[in-house]
């Protein structure tokens, strides 16, 4: 009495190939969205760190201007991996010609983002060499 039983009972079915493929595609989309979000967050964090470093370098360059005497000039350089450009221009001069009012504009950033931080400052400069 050997009767052959079917491998599946009626009513019990597995997943079809189409259902499995749809599930895989949906999972792939979700993974791609999560990875894109984490990569974007890491890039934003790196940009913010570079902006903070550029701001620090720019402020130290502006603060150093108090100790310089002479005519306005243009300077540039690199410090701690941050490139900076400083442009000065004369705004006003006193009657005796001993002091001038200078406006300085500094831009700092990286090679691919040269003007990440830009700000201006006005100060009085002595034309008398000490």
Question: Describe it for me?
Answer:
It contains 1 helix and 4 strands. The protein has 130 residues and is an alpha+beta fold. It has one domain (17-126): Pantoate--beta-alanine Ligase, Chain: A,domain 2 (2-Layer Sandwich), CATH 3.30.1300. A 4-stranded antiparallel beta sheet has the order 1-2-3-4. The N and C termini lie far apart (118 Å).
Describe the structure in brief.
With 130 residues, this protein is an alpha+beta fold.
Instruction: Report the span from N to C terminus.
Output: 118 Å
Helix content: 25-40%
CATH architecture: 2-Layer Sandwich
Which oligomeric state applies?
single chain
Q: Which class of secondary structure composition applies to the elements? A: alpha+beta
Whole-number radius of gyration?
A: 33 Å
Shape: rod-shaped
Q: What is the beta-strand fraction?
A: 25-35%
* Largest sheet composition: 4 strands, antiparallel
Parts with pLDDT < 50 across at least 5 consecutive residues: none
Strand order of the largest sheet: 1-2-3-4
For the record, the CATH class is Alpha Beta
The number of strands is 4
> On the 0-100 scale, what is the average pLDDT?
82
Tell me the count of domains: 1
Order of helices and strands: HEEEE
SS element count, helices: 1
Q: The CATH topology is what?
A: Pantoate--beta-alanine Ligase, Chain: A,domain 2
